[in-house]
Amino acid sequence: MVGSYSQALPGNVLVGAFLCSDSSEKLRGVEVTFTDWQTNLAGHAVPEYEEFIHFGEPVFSTGGSSYVGSLGAWRANSDGYVVALDYRGDLDYDVHVPEDGYYRFDLSIREGNEFRDASQFRLLAFAGDVFLGEVSTPALSSASTTVSFQLPWLPSGVHPITIKWLPVEAGASLQIDSIALVKAEFLDATAGALWVSEQIAGEFALAAPGAVASFVSPYNLYGNAKNLELVSVVRDADNVGFAPSRALRESFHVDLPLGVGVDAETFSISSHGGVLSESVSLQWALTNFADLESMHVSHVRPGDSLLLGWRDEAGEMPEHGVYLEIFKAESGQELPLTDGVQSYSDLTVAPVDATSRDAFLGEGIPSALDAITAERALLESGTPIAFTHPERETLPLASAPADPVHLLDGFGLRTGEVAAVRFETPGRYIMRSTWREADGEIYESILEVEALDVDLGPSVTAQVNYVRDWSPVNAPESAILKLDAGLSLTEHSSDTVRNFDLLLSSPAGARIIARLPGSGAVADSTQVHAIMDYSRLFGGYQKVIGEFADGSRIIEFTLAIGGAIPDDLRVHLTPLGAGTLFEDGTLEQWITADQLDELGRYRYRIIVPGDVRSNACHTYQLFHGNQAIGERI
Fold first, then answer.
1. Claim to verify: residue 120 and residue 224 sit in the same structural domain
2. Could you tell me which residues come within 8 angstroms of residue 337 by beta carbon, excluding any fewer than 6 positions away?
3. Which of 434, 423, 430, 451 is closest to 328 using CA atoms?
4. Cis-peptide into 10, omega within 30 deg
5. What is the distance between the alpha carbons of residues 434 and 207, in angstroms, rounded to a whole number?
6. Alpha-carbon torsion angle 581, 584, 585, 588, nearest 10
């Protein structure tokens, strides 16, 4: 049994443990660990700021009852405050920001039950999808307590802020008297400007600004962004915008396409209303078969493209052109000698039939397979060059013979020509270039690239502070997994699929991304949603509701689960005592997500025979689909 408790504790603490009267287990000991819980800047009741920052009168304030959305039952009072009527809940507010800048969001809270001296409260705050932090603080019923969250930079306008109240003590009732927005002011203008600049730099930055030569198109731009809605990505040449996607909780990525035969293209990436702007100048680097040592990309994503060509140190191609072949293979078996290579060799021996050679290089093999898309072009201008074979067609890879090596395509490149090759399907690709040097010798160079099939699968649900098993749909060993803080993965040894112990410690959830080695491109991402089990936090919500003539008792329990509850959540219940049954006479029950109320509660009853010394002890366990996500309790 593992448990955690978060509360301001008195000087003396009494800790106990008990077993059911009919338990066959023995209590071997109780281990208690006290941890000084530290959180981020927003985790104090009132954040500590630099001494030159001043917060004056609120620029916006309203009563706590001015919420625009809620979870759970709340009562709004005519005096402007709002008090919770449930054991937990959420409130959504619209906050009016008068001008761009940094603000502090204040809540005036108290214990809402006047007959209760004080309670401990745990609050999480979000501005849209930006996690602001969490606060754990006591609050009296006789006086208000101010809880503050530092907001990220906000533009003027209306912004949503959500407050989530998580239960810590039984019987507590959160009351919010008022909310307020206070703007950061600076006693020293110079120091203030520097502070703002540093704050913005901490909220937005590119991993690699400036000039970038990328072997892969599209180029996967990566950067940090606390608020993704503020980020703008625009190509300067035509003012076309590109939508960034969330990577980790405070980072983003966006695919930027590269062109053939064009000068470096500049993209402007700005945030915070243009207060901070970066640019990248992107050039599609040639995968040069004359110098493959300079090529450092060994992995791409399905759908990515390479620009293939041949240039010596003087920028020249062999006099008789270059013949390219692209194979798909699971391993690097010895490549077969194809008819194309032999035909090329025959056409480049003396005396050279230049007309036949040029026609051959322009045709390509008659039937290419659709695992790749090859397009020829003039490097200097980017002008497309069509394959000239009149009967050239693309066949589905599924119709290819079941051989370990497939020749997907073969074609030639003449002076000034390149080929943009797009890898449509996952797998290992082997590219071979063949050419005749002036000395008459035939040479070849070979490049292997793997299009990684990465699929982290659908979003994951994890019970906070409990280990669960997680297996991504497909995450090759070469894929690099990156995680948000508050999430850990411990990989098991396996010869088949990658499997992990996943442990989430934050009720705000977390994200996982998979990046490619070399380029660092984001191949896939998934969200880890948090749920919390409150069922036994306050003693199990159990009560005897009836007794039969034979002495049997019917005892009612309440299951209480909070957080992002998935549609396929299930809870397995099993009685422990002899003769103990559920109300419907069964020995087990499965509770599904659609049976829970708005706050994740479900009431169930257990019948205990009169001659059984038991308090209806039973176990339950949470499942996400068929996967257990918590300990059996």
1. no
2. none
3. 430
4. no
5. 38
6. -60
Q: Which amino acid is at 414?
A: R
The answer to whether 269 touches 252, Cβ cutoff 8 Å, is no
Q: Nearest-CA neighbor of 415 among 367, 458, 371, 376?
A: 376
- Residues 91 and 43: their CA atoms lie apart, in Å, by 19
Examine the domain organization and report whether 516 and 468 are in the same domain: yes
Does residue 60 sit in the same domain as residue 179?
yes
Q: CA–CA separation, 493 vs 497, rounded Å?
A: 9
Contacts of 197 (CB under 8 A, 6+ apart): none
Q: For the domain that residue 603 is a member of, what is the CATH number?
A: 2.60.40
Same domain for 219 and 166: no
Round to whole Å and give the CA distance between 621 and 506. 20
Residue 60: its H or E element:
strand 60-63
Distance separating alpha carbons of residues 42 and 3, to the nearest angstrom:
26
The maximal CA–CA distance of the chain, rounded, in angstroms, is 112
Q: What is the pLDDT of residues 412-468, one digit of tens each?
A: 999 999 999 999 999 999 999 999 998 889 999 999 999 999 999 999 999 999 999
404-423 per-position pLDDT tens digit: 899 999 999 999 999 999 99
Residue 216 belongs to domain with CATH number: 2.60.40.10
Range with the poorest average pLDDT among 242-246, 333-337, 397-401, 507-511: 333-337
Can you say whether the dihedral through the CA atoms of 549, 550, 554, 555 is positive or negative? positive
Q: Say if residue 581 is exposed, middle or buried (CB neighbours under 10 Å; 0-12, 13-18, 19+).
A: middle
Pairing of strands 305-309, 367-369: unpaired
pTM of the model: 0.87
- The arithmetic mean of pLDDT across residues 169-182, rounded, is 94
The token duo for 570 is: 């299930």
Q: Measured between alpha carbons, how far is 39 from 129 in angstroms, rounded to an integer?
A: 19
End-to-end alpha-carbon separation of the chain, Å? 7
What's the CA gap between 315 and 114, in Å, rounded? 84
Token code pair at residue 592: 């599904």
The residue range of the domain holding 340 is: 287-430+437-443
Distance between CA 483 and CA 514 in Å, rounded? 9
- CA 258 to chain centroid, in Å, comes to 26
Final residue belonging to a domain, choices 234, 269, 284: 284
State whether residue 346 is helix, strand or coil.
helix
Q: 182 with 103: CB under 8 angstroms?
A: yes
For the beta sheet containing 232-235, the strands, ordered from the edge strand earlier in sequence to the opposite edge, are 210-214, 276-284, 265-271, 232-235, 240-241
